[in-house]
Amino acid sequence: MLDSAKTRPEQSRPRGGDLLRIDGLTMHFPITKGMFRRQVGTIRAVDGISFEIPRVQTLALVGESGCGKSTAGRTILRLYDPTGGRIVFDGTEITGMAGETLRRLRPRMQMIFQDPQACLNPRMTVGSIVAEPLAEHGVAKGRRRRDRVRELLNAVGLNPKFADRYPHEFSGGQRQRIGIARAIALNPDFIVCDEPIAALDVSIQAQVVNLLQDLQAQLGLTYLFISHDLSMVRHIADRVAVMYLGKLVELAPRRALYAAPLHPYTQALLSAIPIPEPEAERRRTRIILKGDVPSPANPPSGCRFRTRCPVAFDRCAVEEPAWRKRDGERWVACHRVE
């Protein structure tokens, strides 16, 4: 069992309240052309999203590939400098934070990456990989550091004797466990899980999700869980935010969203989830969206989903739907739901 006091003895884990608040976050990338790199356009990867994540809860951010989920996660961690909006972490605005001040915050905000093969240095042993954040931030030395590495490997279900092996000697699921051990090495408060199960076999995905849930309960972690797999999100998320072309279209508690989705895009996504009962699967009505996702460099006017929406009407083309709070803790951006 992990002892959080070994890494940050002066800090306790308060319960309740919001650990993270995002207000109107935008991340735009310039499109340049020619020898002088003249800007000719803008990719609106993330375009004004707002949400909160309470402490020790999981918010799932879902949507099709290319909708801006991963960019949002990296911007929240300040791996990108946001174009606009506010990022408030544990009561402190970190939007413009830089230099040593930002570096001191890094241990509290970590990331688990999608591809466990690409994110592990093949020239480093597993022990060195897990110890890297400890060395970078000057946490523990010598035998204490080695003990901490063995403790972390044991916490994610790996034999501590594997510390001298290299990443290529492990399976995909084991490599992801190594990435998780590295992410929790500094005892963070908040972790962005960027599609951590997408590259794994179905039989291994549930094991990794169960591990993340166990670590959350044990260490008091708060997750932003990025995924396109709504069937798996159902088992780990407390709330679900649905993203389309840089915008949030719906946010709701997990049970409410799966029971009665309000936005047409959410309805289409949920209709694609297979039902593990042959009779119910035969009766399932799928909503097939027409066309392709538009380019974030040239999004449609009004509602961005209108070009594929089966219930769009004239107003959708000229007026962007407002992000409104509905019953309870539900939020939605759709003219049909007003």
Shape: globular
Helix content: 25-40%
SS elements, strand count:
12
C-alpha termini separation: 49 Å
Task: Describe this entry's structure for a reader.
This protein is of the alpha/beta class and 338 residues long. The chain has helices at 69-76, 99-105, 126-136, 142-155, 172-183, 202-219, 230-233, 254-259, 264-271, 278-283, 314-318, and strands at 18-33, 38-54, 58-62, 84-89, 92-93, 109-112, 190-194, 222-227, 239-244, 247-253, 324-325, 331-332. It has an eight-stranded mixed beta sheet with strand order 6-7-8-3-9-10-12-11. The chain has a four-stranded antiparallel beta sheet with strand order 2-1-4-5. Helix 3 packs across helix 4 (142-155) and helix 3 (126-136) packs parallel to helix 5.
Give a short overview.
The protein is of the alpha/beta class and 338 residues long.
Index terms:
single chain; 338 residues; alpha/beta; 8-stranded mixed beta sheet; 11 helices; 12 strands
Set out the fold topology.
Elements lengths: L17 E16 L4 E17 L3 E5 L6 H8 L7 E6 L2 E2 L5 H7 L3 E4 L13 H11 L5 H14 L16 H12 L6 E5 L7 H18 L2 E6 L2 H4 L5 E6 L2 E7 H6 L4 H8 L6 H6 L30 H5 L5 E2 L5 E2 L6
Parallel strand pairs: 3-8, 3-9, 6-7, 7-8
Antiparallel strand pairs: 1-2, 1-4, 4-5, 9-10, 10-12, 11-12
